[in-house]
Fold these 2 entries.
Entry 1:
Amino acid sequence: MYDIIIIGAGPAGLTAALYASRAMKKILVLEAVSYGGQIINSSMVDNYPAIPHTDGYDFATRLYNQVKELKVDIKFERVIEIIDQDKYKLIKTKDNTYESKTIIIATGNSSRKLGIDKEEELVGRGVSYCATCDGAFFKNKDVAVIGGGNTALEDAIYLSNIASHVYIIHRNDAFKAEDVLIKTIKEKNNIECIYNSNITKLNGEEKLESIEITNNDGTIKTINVSGIFIAIGRVPENEIFKNIITLDDSGYILAGENCHTNIQGIFVAGDARHKELRQLVTATSDGAIAATEAIKYLDNDKM
Ligand SMILES: Cc1cc2nc3c(=O)[nH]c(=O)nc-3n(C[C@H](O)[C@H](O)[C@H](O)COP(=O)(O)OP(=O)(O)OC[C@H]3O[C@@H](n4cnc5c(N)ncnc54)[C@H](O)[C@@H]3O)c2cc1C
């Protein structure tokens, strides 16, 4: 029986592990993919206090190593269900069932999908959600970025230094991004902005060959591209908890600053939580708070 099982090894989960381990609790971290969470996809992190000019991989690796130094048990298994047995909780993965007195959910969020035909089957064959991970595969090719926020514009700028031509396809008539990014986009002569348009079809069998875009006036156009980078926002990963945990309308777990969910002994930290600002600094802050609350719960002997 563990004291605390942490679901997710992103910044929130790893920070929770740091705090819980230093309090000498018996903990396990379960991670579905790889350590670090979303930030691993970022080529530049410049707003984390006291660590200027770093990149996401470096940030995540430092945190991971800090946690591993404490001999924290981290297993790479996706959690598929949690069951509340009141005094203790069951955490199920495909192959195992673990028992713990408390749980910290730190499952973050993931890229929103377009939801069109062939999107899933062409992932890794022209469809990507991460310019910094996959951009290098498109050297001197034509690509498109879908979206109109900061991430889409950052992706387009990054790709403009690798690809021959970068289209930005945005469903509205103006970008919703920082002025400095919009200015940079305008200065790049290999970036072309297509406004008021949605991507409606992906063409290609073995790999992506072209995309169909439909203008808000109904005009349809085909553009030949080898890759598309989808940057249309993020969605929470909380479906598996919804039977017992209360979510808000957007699927985020309802909890205040103390990170308590509606179930005693189950806490939530980071981007998975209902909140205003989803950033590293708020994720790590939540991780510290959730662990401290779990420790208090254990030490008050509410078991
Ligand atoms: C491209 C990009 C750039 C960014 N740049 C910045 C920046 O410069 N500054 C900044 O402050 N923030 C930035 N952010 C936001 C920041 O990365 C997030 O706020 C932060 O990572 C949230 O941490 P988290 O631990 O809550 O969630 P996540 O980082 O999403 O980590 C959640 C982890 O849980 C795992 N998981 C999910 N479901 C399960 C399951 N069922 N079982 C087991 N594990 C599971 C996931 O695999 C993941 O590893 C950026 C985000 C992106 C995408």
Entry 2:
Amino acid sequence: MSQISIFVGSVYGGAERLSEEVAATIEQAGHTAKVFNAPTVSDIQSASHILIITSTTGQGDIPDNLAGLYHQLNSTFPMLTAKPFGIVAMGDRSYGDTFCGAGRSFDELLRDLQAKPVGHRLEIDACEDFEPWPVTEPWLKDWLSKL
Ligand SMILES: Cc1cc2nc3c(=O)[nH]c(=O)nc-3n(C[C@H](O)[C@H](O)[C@H](O)COP(=O)(O)O)c2cc1C
């Protein structure tokens, strides 16, 4: 059984709703899940397993409720050595080069902090997958099986 801390970045509530479905499924699988909508550095330092679920805003930017954590991590650079993490990035391919930019930025930063990627980053294109859950569910089951 794993304790999973879910860090959510959302502007219009899509990533937030997805995180609730993800948390419920994690608990049904016998793990525990805690959702953070306004996370701090100490929340991520005390997490045993990290799951980032974030949309992208602006031009490849991180939503405000998660951007503070990103910038604090980037400036204080606390090592998260070997902490397992996964990334669910929500975006829209019509934004071109900045597609899923927030998820990509977090992925790079967590790797720089020596956290351990589990599986590949899930990128959800709102143009193709109007409902994010059907693509997230199989990814999540696979991710949980790798913990
Ligand atoms: C103003 C605005 C800017 C956006 N910028 C990007 C972007 O740069 N890259 C991207 O992949 N998606 C971008 N998106 C798409 C959102 O990330 C996508 O619709 C997401 O599902 C919204 O999730 P949320 O409801 O949790 O905010 C943008 C959407 C809006 C409204």
